[in-house]
Every structure is written in C-alpha cells, then in structure tokens.
Amino acid sequence: MLLLSDPQVAAIPVRDCGEALVDLRESGRFLVDTRKKDPVGSWAQIRVGVRDRLLTAQDDLPDGVRLLVVEGHRPADLQQYYFDGHCADLEKCHPHWTADRLRAEASKHVSPPTAALG
Asked: How many C-beta atoms lie closer than 10 Å to residue 85's C-beta?
C-alpha cells in the first residue's frame, strides 16, 4: 500500500490549475453538509470544473437521489490540525510507537499536509 506520507507521493509536483473556487451553496443544486463548516466558508468551496462534473453526475442520478457534499476545499492549516490531532490520538493508544511510525499510521487515515507540498 502506498501511503500519502510516502516520499514518492511528496515528490510529485503540485501545480495549481488556476480554476476559480466557487461556493456550492450558491447554486442551490447540492445538499451541503455543515459538519465540517469553518469560519471563512472554505468547506463549501470547490473548483469550477469539479462543480460542473458533480452537476453532471447529479443530473444522472435517479429521481429523489441527490449528492451530499460534506467538505470541499480544506486549507493547509486545517489539514495540519486534523493530522496532528490524529497523531495525538494514536500516540495515546500506542505510546511506544516512534514518531515515524505514528506519522505512517496516521497517514493511513488523514493525509499529512506535506503530501501536497511537492
């Protein structure tokens, strides 16, 4: 299994595609969950192309079935918070694990922010 914390993943260059972020709540076409809501509204933001593909997918769903978006854009500081929190939870359960082992195990559930730095 290749983890997101693997150096091979981090070595892949990340290039911004330049597409604008749009707020899913504005279209009125999606169910947008608020459980991951953040103060600046990033959770409801996605790229224009992703929105368009989701709209196409939703149009192909049977009547009465709708997509539910839980989280769109996640800023790096929030991703770091989630990753650090998961590492802390694992460390409580496995205090004998090394820092490298904690990071590897945590990255099976939450992507380390460094994976997106390229």
From this structure: 12
